[in-house]
Amino acid sequence: MKIAVIGSTHAGTFSATQIKQLHPEADITVYEQHTTVSFLSCGIALWVGNHVSDEQRMFYETPASMTEQGITMKMQHQVVEADLVNKRVRAKNLLTGDFSDETFDKIVITTGSKPLVPKIPGIDNDKIYMVKSWEDANRIKEVADDVKRVVVIGAGYIGAEIAEQFSVTGKKVTLIDGFDRVLPKNFSPVITDRLEAAFQDNDVTLALQQLVTGFEDATDGGIRVTTNQGAYEADIAVLGIGFLPNTDLFKGQVDMLPNGAILTNAYMETSLPDVYAAGDATTVFYNPTQAYDYIPLATNAIRQGMLVARNIDGHHLAYSGTQATSAVELYGYAMSATGLNKGAAEARGLDVVETVHEEDYRPDFMLSTTPVLSTLTWDRKTRRVLGAAFMSKHDITQAANVVSLAIQNQMTIDDLAMADFFFQPNFTQPVNFVGATALQAVSDAQNKN
């Protein structure tokens, strides 16, 4: 079995290594245009803030380690043509300029995503920094200690983390976003209001509900960022407004969403036989809506890469979908979310209720405790749990994993309220805050009837 894997961040790395484990006889070739594999880009902000012990530990595999496993690694090889019907790959060696052609029995597309870069004046300014690849990470790290003013564009996870790390290391930060609040796709206003207060307490200027209209050099050698409401000057600008599937090479060959995300079935097969896809290049089956969606997350990519390996020789394990569970730590707040918040649900036409609950995470007779703010989103008619989020100064982030399982198993608020959660005063109240929030949701439902 001769297999080509195109791209090797998370989905590609896991596809290749897991196939080799399950099928030692497989002849696997990985094409990667960069010099590294398996880069944990979620650590870039931490590296900027000097919280990384060793940047080389931001990789869990290397080209050498994958070669030792018996995988042929064609590093710094850019695939310039992929004939998916005939399973032929043409690659350019970026060091020599030479081209090579090879045919395979199966092709795995794991080309990942690319930063969303809007077509606005000045976008090619060399003082604009991306936050995606190892090369991006090195470029921004080189200047991080020296800059004094930073404009961050995009208040999702990436932008929020970068803005926080620059602010706690003494930089003057402006955070710009077109939405009316930070992290709008992950958390409801009851949570983001507190987070915004934390940004402002750390002297971050929040320029919300503003759209960037242009970039230009500033008179002091920095960069001037213009929006539809004003202008902001800084030493550098960091662009983190989202990602698009990196799938231009395959357009017209396999079924895709309008944004280019490749559609797969539950076994990670595309619309062509013996062509698989995984990771940020593909869709996910989003359990809260029971529909395919585009949600680029490392966790999704890793699981899909594993599924490619399980199903490379037949249908052995079906994809169970995702809840897009995630977490972040900002200004000492541990925050996690799974599924839909109220705004995201309503934007998809769903009739939902959001229950908000707050209590200390463990009994008050303990010498210390601290509040947990919880939200639970549920379907008004079916009472099915669709999402949850948590915020606390205590690390309660694993609670999102609990509700993720509830969503995956289509539990109702009644099911979650009666779930078996332990009580031990070192760790929790007699009724765990997850169960307490679900009980409040049940009460809310009764009061609304």
UniProtKB/TrEMBL annotation:
According to the record, the segments passing through the membrane are none
Q: Which UniProt keywords apply?
A: FAD, Flavoprotein, Oxidation, Oxidoreductase, Redox-active center
GO terms of molecular function: oxidoreductase activity
Q: What is its EC number?
A: 1.6.99.3
Q: Does the keyword Oxidoreductase apply?
A: yes
Supply the enzyme class, top level.
Answer: oxidoreductase
InterPro entries tied to this protein: FAD-bd_OxRdtase, FAD/NAD-bd_sf, FAD/NAD-binding_dom, FAD/NAD-linked_Rdtase_dimer_sf, Pyr_nucl-diS_OxRdtase_dimer
The answer to keyword Cytoplasm applying to this record is no
- Identification of the protein by name: Nox protein
Lineage start = Bacteria, Bacillati, Bacillota, Bacilli, Lactobacillales
